[in-house]
Specification:
Elements (H helix, E strand, L loop, with lengths): L4 H26 L2 H7 L4 H17 L1 H11 L2 H14 L10 H27 L2 H4 L1 H28 L4 H7 L1 H17 L21 H15 L4 H11 L7 H26 L1 H11 L2 H6 L3 H26 L8 H29 L1 H27 L1
Helix pairs in contact: 1-8, 1-10, 2-12, 3-6, 3-12, 3-17, 4-6, 4-17, 5-6, 5-10, 6-17, 8-9, 8-13, 8-16, 11-17, 11-18, 13-14, 13-16, 14-16, 14-18, 17-18
């Protein structure tokens, strides 16, 4: 394969379309998971812990899937297995008869994502030298979030037409199958994506990872500790009545659309001004919870808008800042390490978040904002060491 900018962009776009259908499927389901589990008898604490466990498995398994992908170089095999589990678990929610079964399927969906994520990100990173890491992950995330915007809108339409949550989950089988079909096409067109990688100097001179890499891991862990999953936010909307049932998936769609725009904007901005774009995005998103948890409909909508900025920044900017400090042959493992730590701290953070929701919502908001603000100086410190 001749290495050209256009061939690299085509690869980014086809993988982006795969992820568009994928996000349409599982984000469509996630937009109503909180209320759905609530109807099945789950408490706010149970919903928070389920979300935390899902992210725990969805991230910590990347320790192993990233390492295996680097060692075997079977990136496409990992990708196919992961997407199959990731996609088929979602429509299966239509058959869940208890919150326990729903929780298992939610965790299975996140597990499938864990298997394929480092492999996909590594293949995308091969184009970073030609295109720019911020732009590569920005385009991919924008297509991700486009699907993540459409999915909740489809579920909202089902609810508006007097269908139930189960009908909403069942109709997502269509996008799941489209995702897998597009993935087959991608594999046929790009059997060896590593050919897209331009020869680049190895940035690490030691056997392990640099201090810069580990500081980025710490920053990600702090942000994950303070993160609050949409399932708990949606549960709160339903409980206090600030947002009616039919509007909840629409709010999620707003967050996803915001994430899509954020991914493109901050991805391009990162290629121009570096770490300042990262800290700006996370500084803005830190203020999402006060608006989401306090006030009425308008305040909640603005809070979800800010929450979407943080969501778009997570998957775009963290991967973009890792690419320059990790050599090509270690990227799957590095992405897996970063995501694994992110998942562990997400779970550890969701435990006090679930407890604090029942005790004091202001305390929950303070807890979340404290850890996310704490990540900002760590990002600057990592960037400083990276330049020294």
């Amino acid at each position: 394969m001749k290495i050209t900018k256009s061939s690299a962009i085509r690869f980014i776009l086809i993988i982006g379309i795969v992820n568009l259908f994928a996000d349409l499927t599982y984000e469509g389901a996630r937009s109503v998971i909180g209320p759905f589990m609530g109807l099945l008898g789950a408490s706010a604490f149970t919903i928070s812990i389920t979300a935390g466990l899902g992210e725990f498995f969805g991230y910590t398994l990347r320790f192993f899937s990233g390492y295996i992908a680097d060692k075997t170089h079977k990136y496409w095999l990992n990708t196919f297995i992961g997407y199959a589990i990731n996609m088929l678990a979602v429509p299966a929610l239509a058959l869940a008869g208890s919150w326990q079964m729903a929780a298992l399927l939610i965790i299975a969906e996140r597990t499938g994502r864990a298997i394929r994520k480092p492999a996909v990100e590594t293949m995308l990173s091969y184009t970073a030298k030609e295109i720019g890491s911020g732009k590569v992950f920005g385009i991919n995330e924008a297509l991700d979030q486009t699907g993540a915007t459409i999915g909740p809108l489809i579920v909202a339409l089902v609810l508006y037409l007097k269908g139930g949550y189960r009908q909403g989950f069942a109709i997502l089988l269509i996008s799941a199958l489209l995702c897998l079909a597009t993935l087959v096409i991608a594999r046929l067109l790009y059997a060896n994506p590593k050919e897209l990688a331009m020869k680049e100097p190895v940035p690490l001179k030691t056997k392990g990872y640099t201090r810069t890499f580990w500081l980025y891991v710490v920053a990600g862990a702090l942000i994950a500790t303070g993160a609050t999953d949409f399932s708990l936010i949606a549960y709160h909307f339903q409980k206090v009545g600030s947002v009616t049932l039919h509007f909840i998936p629409l709010f999620y769609a707003v967050a996803m659309a915001t994430g899509a725009i954020t991914a493109l904007f901050f991805g391009r901005l990162y290629d121009r001004i570096g770490i300042h774009s990262v800290t700006l995005a996370f500084f803005i998103s830190t203020f999402s919870l006060p608006f989401a948890f306090f006030g009425g409909f308008g305040s909640a909508l603005f809070g979800i808008f800010l929450w979407g900025i943080g969501l778009g920044a997570q998957d775009t900017l963290f991967k973009a800042i890792l690419v320059p400090v990790v050599p090509v042959d270690k990227r799957g493992t590095a992405f897996g390490i970063f995501d694994g730590v992110f998942g562990i701290t997400w779970l550890l953070g969701n435990i006090p978040v679930g407890i604090l929701y029942a005790i004091s919502i202001p305390a929950l908001v303070i807890f979340s904002m404290f850890f996310q603000f704490l990540a900002l100086p760590v990002l600057y410190l990592a960037d400083h060491y990276g330049k020294s």
